[in-house]
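Z., the sequence and structure:
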Amino acid sequence: MYKIQTLNAISDIIHTQLSADQYTVSKDEPVPDAILVRSAAMHEMTFNKELKAIGRAGAGVNNIPIDRCSKEGIVVFNTPGANANAVAELVIAGLLMSGRKIVDGVEWAKTLKGQGAEVPKLVEKGKSQFVGPEMRGKTLGVIGLGAIGAIVANAASRGLGMNVLGFDPFISVESAWSLSTTIHRASSADDVIAQADYITFHVPLNDKTRGTINADMIAKMKDGVVLLNFSRGELADTAAVKDALASGKLSKYVTDFPNDDLIGVENVICIPHLGASTPESEENCASMAAAEIRDYLENGSIHNSVNFPELQLGEPEAIRVLVLHENIPNMIATITSAASKEGINIENMVNKSKKDMAVTVMEMAELPSQHALDTLAELPGIIRIRTFVK
């Protein structure tokens, strides 16, 4: 039996992936083989030696200590694309709200309560203060064309009639194929922001992207541009955004990540992190994370890991030995040489790497002795060894 700990309320749909005859799932599991998490902070947690995987039901993993997990041989999964439609729909809503002053108008309409038969007249008299432009014919810049950015770009182009410029230096083949031919490819982020009337960011938060939306970047934008941030609040320098709003450089800032400095600021629309808050999104993320964990625990397959390489494996044909190790020179030779000395006959081998981490998989007919496995585990650079039997 595999033991799974849940750190947040996770949709019951996980049980379609984690069958009761092979998995126990509990928030109180003290020694789990894997953890399923949504937003719970894990940086201060101590991990037991049996912990093999963490599945994040969502895309962002800033609540998980990735470097420490890598050093301890814990494979961290996320679920890119599982909540993409939910977030993209909210981005489109934010786009519309930024132009037509819908939020202000709704709040104003509430003040007419009690005016009785005068309400229609007051509405006609006061509605002009909420006039805003149509989206059709305007230019939308999309920086980051992953699962969410691609949906936003396509919807804005096909559905709203916008001219869409997109930039993503790391675009995947899958995302590229999903883009409409009406999307114009920009050569740089600067090329996008210099032309766009509306700009939306869909990039991960990391040390390189933190504070990307700063005074220097904003200075390169058109006057009166609308800025949308549904990725992470820390992508933007709040002080620079407020200064740009005050000067009129930015006409609106729409974000799904409120903070105390932004709430109540004129021309800021703060949405309370509703991007993935749909029943469909939560189920998609939970099911996907559970499936990733199941395939890794049972077969050693790695799909959508943020710290170890992609490794698609079927069920083992006989014996499978999976070695998590550092991506350093001569590692494969060291492993195979040690295996040979221990009498291990390797019938098939696969090696994959991702930055500093690597995985080597060896298939064989007979299960190595515990002494042989211990000898491999003691090699410099080896982090963890797992065995799978058909």
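The first helix runs from residue 66 to 71. Residues 342 and 372 are 6 Å apart (CA to CA).

Let me know what you think.
H.
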